[in-house]
Structure formats: structure tokens, C-alpha cells
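Bench notes, bay 3.
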Amino acid sequence: DVDECETDEGLLCQHTCINNIGNFTCGCHPGYHLLENGFNCSGKFKRDLICSNLCSG
């Protein structure tokens, strides 16, 4: 079995790649969900993440 996550196919995943026997699936970081295309994730906006890091305090 080829680890598709170690090939160019795994680069299709926006966040994480999970190797399966004969295939792979993409996953998303906490707070995000996988879109219908099976590769991209949607969730928190970058602006919100930047502000939560820079605007607090």
C-alpha cells in the first residue's frame, strides 16, 4: 500500500491527510469542518484568529 499522504495526492488536503488502505481522507483542525469537495476546510476566519492572538490583553 502506498501512503498517499506522502505523495502529491496528500498535498490536496488543506489541513491534514489520513492514510487508509488503498486510499486517503482529509481532515480538519478543531473548529473547522470538511467541505463537500473532501479536501478543503471551512470554519473560523483568519481575521478572528489573528485578533484573538493580538487583540487580547
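Next record in the batch:
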Amino acid sequence: MNAAGNLAQSIGDGIAGLVGGAVRALGAAIQGLVNALQSLLPGPWFLVIVVAIVVLVAWSVFRR
């Protein structure tokens, strides 16, 4: 592979690393939020609230 090919490969690897890191950080943030809410809400209330939020968001999206 020539120098231009190596440069393009390096740029692609860097972008892939940035995107992968951002996705992992977002996943960790969501997981932390879910864990915090599960510790605050006893029993099945967490699931009830999550389902209610999903239904409200879906209703809002489909209503448009």
C-alpha cells in the first residue's frame, strides 16, 4: 500500500475509534441512568414507568 493509502487507512481508523468511543460512552451513560433509576424505584415500578414513557413518546411521534 502506498503512502496515500496508509494515510487514508489511518484517518479511517481514527474516525472509527472516535465513533466507537462515543457509542460506548453513550451506552455507559444510559446504563448508569438505568441503574440509578432501578435503585430508586422499588419492584416493578421501574418497568411500569419505562413502558409509560415509551408509549407516550410513540404516541407523540405517531400523532404527527
